[in-house]
Specification:
This protein is an alpha/beta fold and 228 residues long. The protein has helices at residues 18-28, 45-52, 65-78, 98-105, 124-141, 157-162, 171-182, 204-217, and strands at residues 5-11, 33-38, 55-58, 83-86, 110-114, 153-156, 187-191. The chain has a seven-stranded mixed sheet, with helices on both faces. The two termini are 20 Å apart.
Length: 228
């Protein structure tokens, strides 16, 4: 693939894990531009980013993952990058699988790194909420994929230009996916490992409630998604 790729990494309190992630990204995608959006960290995340990334954006205060991704996408659109590849700063997305996402993207518009639920390291509660969210999203968007909740994604520039998702926290990714589907963009999964371990900033009750409200808001909308 000859497209220009920008890796967008939303980071919060990630000074310990970010250096390894950035080095692994450099190994997996040596030609990619690396953008880190520091979501108001106070642990040295920005210092690490300025040393190892190509571009650092620092938000005022902890605005949320959605706000950080939106800022990163805006930076991609200000450049001549063709693809945004998003991954987390905590090491739960293995950068070694980034080329696989980009290969699958050659035949579609959005690729989500699909994690296995059964028999994996995913906590039981997250397995249940992941499965229910994926089923609910299928109902409102026409996207029938194993995993719709992963933040490990490859997205074509055309999608970023047309889709302006709502929400400042984890619901942003759900809203983005549904809006992309309604716009007729092709969405697929690419298998990636299920990695858990670092403490997640996802808040089970409040963030799950935001995702549910986001899905509910799209009920009855016209579906134009293509998954093949």
């Amino acid at each position: 693939m000859t497209d220009r790729v920008a890796c967008v990494i939303a980071a919060y309190q990630a000074a310990e894990t970010l250096p390894r992630v950035l080095r692994q990204v450099r190994t997996a995608l040596p030609k990619a531009r690396v953008i880190v959006v520091d979501d108001g960290s106070h642990d040295g995340t920005s210092t690490v980013s300025k040393d190892l990334a190509d571009w650092t954006i620092r938000l005022r205060g902890n605005c949320g993952k959605g706000a950080a991704l939106r800022a990163g996408f805006d930076e991609v659109l200000r450049s001549d990058d063709d693809i945004a590849l998003t991954l987390d700063a905590d090491g739960q997305h293995d950068p070694a699988y980034a080329p696989r996402l980009l290969t699958v993207l050659e035949a579609c518009d959005v690729v989500i790194g699909g994690r296995s639920r059964a028999g994996s390291a995913m906590p039981l509660r997250r397995r249940m909420t992941n499965a229910m969210a994926s089923m609910a999203i299928a109902r409102v968007s026409g996207i029938r994929l194993q995993d719709t909740q992963s933040g490990y994604r490859a997205i074509r520039r055309e999608v970023l230009e047309r889709v302006r998702a709502h929400g400042d926290r984890y619901e942003f990714e759900t809203d983005f996916l549904i809006r992309a589907a309604h716009a007729g963009f092709r969405v697929r999964n690419a298998s990636v490992p299920t990695v858990y371990g670092p403490v997640s900033h996802f808040r089970s009750i409040s963030d799950s409630a935001r995702i549910v409200r986001t899905i509910w808001a799209h009920r009855g909308a016209t579906v134009g998604a293509r998954t093949r």
